[in-house]
Fold this protein.
Amino acid sequence: MSGLILLPICLPIIAGIIMLISSAASKWRKAPDLNAEGLKKLHIMAILVLAASAVVAVVLAWSGDVSFTLFYLMKDIPIYFHVDDIGRIFITVISIIWVVICIYSFVYMKHEGEERRFFGFYLVVYGVLAALVFSGNLVTMYLFYEMMTLTSMPLVLHNGSREAIMAALKYLFYSMCGAYLGLFGIFFLYKYCTSLTFTPGGTLDMALVSGNQGLLLASVFAMLIGFGVKAGMLPLHAWLPTAHPVAPSPASAALSGIIVKCGVLAVIRTVYYIVGADFIRGTWVQTAWMVLTLMTVFMGSMLAFREPVFKKRLAYSTVSQVSYILFGLSALSPTAMTGSLLHVVFHAFIKCTLFLTAGIFIFQCGKTRVEELVGIGKEMPKTLWCYTFASLALIGIPPTSGFISKWYLAQGALEANIGAFRWIGPVVLLISALLTAGYLLPVTMKGFFPGKDAAQTEWKKQEPPYLMLLPLVFLALMAVLLGVFPNPLIRYFSQIAATVL
């Protein structure tokens, strides 16, 4: 039964490769693009493979502890998969959002073209993400972390323009540099840990560490910077606002809602499951980490506030919001960690809603800048209401989900023994929330109330097709309802925090 863990990994990867080979063969033969019937079959195959893989992954994850060793890379380093509490929640969120974005993409990708190639890579990335989440040790996680970068890069350069190619190369360069910093740290941890298998509380051998704390702290800090690249943390955050505007909106939603969280997952695994929180508590590493996260929170919000391109504004917002999560993790307190894990889930649904809304504005009327969205609520009231609810959740207005996670983050900071950061953290989070309102709510206000200059405009109803609107409604509802009924998640994440701390 343990071998079933390979099914949600291998099935989408194999199906995606078949699609990519089919696409390449058609181009080589100079065959015409798929007709309507061919596209329908492509969509059916994509959703069936993805849904089956997602169901197996989620059911397997929640059926109990599952472990499987694929082979040994070295004598004592296996390629090893294991389902644990963190993996369960990550694979559940990834599976739900990946299926929802896939349904939305059936219509949207007609606007972009090359659908076989897009869905091929989209399926492959899901399989790689499943392998990353189910990784049972640091080396296995690193291999699939690198593979995630390589397989998701084609989603960024999909349209083949010069801007897309340069953005994809920037994404690749930043991600590889970050991954190499992570690899540098792994070399040292291999020497000073009893095992690289993920274990709550860490696996450091303190007898070996004695006298080498400085070197090991530097190694851990390099890993935090390296894995922080994918999460958009200073100083290597610039790939996010470059990649998002040129990528198709479904790819932007996947990058912002899911891919950046894999950087967060790598940080969690390193700090809480290999090194142990006690090793870095009170050290310069914790201080520097908190400084970088709070600087990123503030800087990302300020840049989003000043940015006129809608998708780029949302990308800067992601830079800021994901560092909320990293700040909670850096506080090394149970309450703050609970808030971070809550924000991982809530931000995924919220930010996917916002990016899919941006995609609808592009698909329906070609509007990409904030000033072009004046009166958009008269044309797309349902779409803009979904955007509004997601915006309120991101700001942290009760009873939406964002309020719950930010409350726990602030409470966790106040409770933690982190000196002046006990109050600096909540102050920065509050300032960021005000800036978030400043860059999100004007779209709603001017969208529904365009003013006297637009009073004589004849508005056209341009709501998107239901295959685009229904996923948007579902994600917006989740952003609100998870805040109304948060207790199961709070209890679950509190148990995880208590276990690792």
Remarks:
- The chain is about 75% helix and 5% strand.
- Strands lie at 67-74, 77-82.
- The chain has a mean pLDDT of 90.
